[in-house]
């Protein structure tokens, strides 16, 4: 049974990052975005995971909700990081529709046997207090409703620094990417470690049998 134990330890699970341009690495050199850095950190920590980045620049929650079932079937992830909604907000799309789309993605991930992680965004104040407050609260209320991990604000560590943004003042620079990863990592690491411990326990049980 030793060969089966080694195989169980060697088979990595899939972490799917499902977002927009902030996760797709818009305007950055290849392999320098925060998702690429995440894959590198996972490898450096010898965690049994592979990272798949299915993010698309310009994606809205409507597009994401439509596309997700096929992506889940293709990659069969154990964790799905949902980083969408920013483009809905920037376009002033209805919050109710954004909420429904995010909920569809959370439910689709769960039906596929994956653990969803929701990544929140914030909007500039010029979008109006009522809209921005409702936008921000959508992420918190969905996380509470579905009892899932929420990264409150992807750009928490860089939002106040203009020099961390490209000329469009929307997309972070390459210098900002490690800080974005540092914002996400504390929320992801416990999930990755928990899966590692579960895998190790199963491997030991197989070996003993």
Protein architecture, described:
By secondary structure, the protein is of the alpha/beta class. It is built from 8 helices and 5 strands, in the order αβααβαβααβαβα. The protein has a 5-stranded parallel β-sheet with strand order 2-1-3-4-5, with helices on both faces. α1 runs antiparallel to α8, α4 packs parallel to α6 and α6 runs parallel beside α7. The N terminus and C terminus are likely disordered.
Key terms:
209 residues, alpha/beta, five-stranded parallel β-sheet, 8 helices, globular, disordered C terminus
What's the arrangement of secondary structure elements?
Layout: H1 2-10, E1 13-19, H2 21-24, H3 34-44, E2 49-53, H4 61-75, E3 79-83, H5 86-90, H6 95-111, E4 115-119, H7 129-146, E5 149-151, H8 177-208
Parallel strand pairs: 1-2, 1-3, 3-4, 4-5
Q: Give the total of beta strands.
A: 5
Radius of gyration: 18 Å
- Low-pLDDT sequence parts: 1-8, 199-209
Helix content estimate: 40-55%
Q: Count every helix, treating DSSP H or I runs of 4 or more residues as helices.
A: 8
Q: What does the largest sheet look like?
A: 5 strands, parallel
